[in-house]
Amino acid sequence: xxxxxxxxxxxxxxxxxxxxxxxxxxxxxxxxxxxxxxxxxxxxxxxxxxxxxxxxxxxxxxxxxxxxxxxxxxxxxxxxxxxxxxxxxxxxxxxxxxxxxxxxxxxxxxxxxxxxxxxxxxxxxxxxxxxxxxxxxxxxxxxxxxxxxxxxxxxxxxxxxxxxxxxxxxxxxxxxxxxxxxxxxxxxxxxxxxxxxxxxxxxxxxxxxxxxxxxxxxxxxxxxxxxxxxxxxxxxxxxxxxxxxxxxxxxxxxxxxxxxxxxxxxxxxxxxxxxxxxxxxxxxxxxxxxxxxxxxxxxxxxxxxxxxxxxxxxxxxxxxxxxxxxxxxxxxxxxxxxxxxxxxxxxxxxxxxxxxxxxxxxxxxxxxxxxxxxxxxxxxxxxxxxxxxxxxxxxxxxxxxxxxxxxxxxxxxxx
Length: 415
What we know:
Strand order of the largest sheet: 1-2
Order of helices and strands: HHHHHHHHHHHHHHHHHEEH
Largest sheet: 2 strands, antiparallel
Radius of gyration: 21 Å
Number of strands: 2
Number of helices: 18
Oligomer: single chain
Distance between the termini: 34 Å
CATH architecture: Up-down Bundle
CATH topology: Growth Hormone, Chain: A
Shape: globular
CATH superfamily: MFS general substrate transporter like domains
């Protein structure tokens, strides 16, 4: 029995999490970590480069509507076998393209494949661990977010030495090896049981979307995550270089620190929630307060202190402490919805997450594209303080929405 658990349960979870780790590298490193390199090599403006992130996020978001349902119907391992093929194909193809159009196509493949990984792992964890799945989920999120940590400073240093194309190609090969091992060891024998319990897709969505508590949770957690993730994956490194007075290496290390804080905070938040008998409303309100503090503070710092204010990095790190709420959002949705629809509820929630990320990425790219930029001595485009004041002023308005929605969340009744 122990051998069966290790080979058919634990090992597939580890290998699936490995693929999720690689997916996080792809999400964060492009375009954020190599923003300047992509601009210089492709000759594209900010709006074009942000589409490399948005194309991944939009397809990722749309597929979340189906990934949870597919996991409920066919079993998480079978879905990963299907999605992992597209993910590895995109990971290998992206560094080989030399045009923006080709790169966007590869990013779509990456987003499609990556979209089927996370919720499939969550589905299996919730099936094996039930209500105690929050900590297991947080460990998966922790591992995945270490991919985001690697995608900043370590990736930037390796890319500077070996070239970003070679590093991404190596990551693609590494993911492909992990996928082949997963394909060999993962079993989907229990998928038929899950298929019998599945409700109609449209009925399931209707049950999920007509609940007021679900909608408030979807909106609050999505905007909160989107505000953080647009800093982590698109805007943060470029902003710290242009307005924070940081070198590219220092900016990359700050973003890595943000990713590490976000990863660890997910585990801490899950443990705090369990210690307070899963009364999560206070945690959500705290996240809203942190968001309302950080974004207006960045905006005011730019207005009052100009460029070169080192405190900007502190606000980013503080924002990361409440960015990862999945470890309490998913158990919350499991308690609020029928058991057979837990995967569907998680898929809708994740759809909101990444639509929010893509929206904020396009929004910041659009604002930056409407302003003039000058080239520095290295040939990189540098955007003005006024541009970033406009960007963070808009993001500050959305941070207020996070707090408003957090105040409207209701905890499930404690039995």
